[in-house]
Amino acid sequence: MPINIYADDESKRRIAWLCDDNWRLPDQIEALESWLELNRSKVKGGRYIADIGFAPREDASGGTAISPAMLRTLADLGISLFLSEYPPITNGQ
Question: What pTM did the predictor assign?
Fold first, then answer.
């Protein structure tokens, strides 16, 4: 469920689904920022949730930054950012 953007109301209407099977947080932040830049004018202000489902990385040596521009766009559009951590996915489970 890497990035699910949906209406924060009773309908839970899906706005976008990004990254499919990519559970790497840095890649997802980059994809969300790109999507926001491309779709900013198409999303009417309202109440939305962008839920990023990520798994911890064994090779992680730090985190990832969310730019002020991305934070501003999220706020302008009324999008709350959820970070949902999932256990590592291994083959055979």
Answer: 0.86
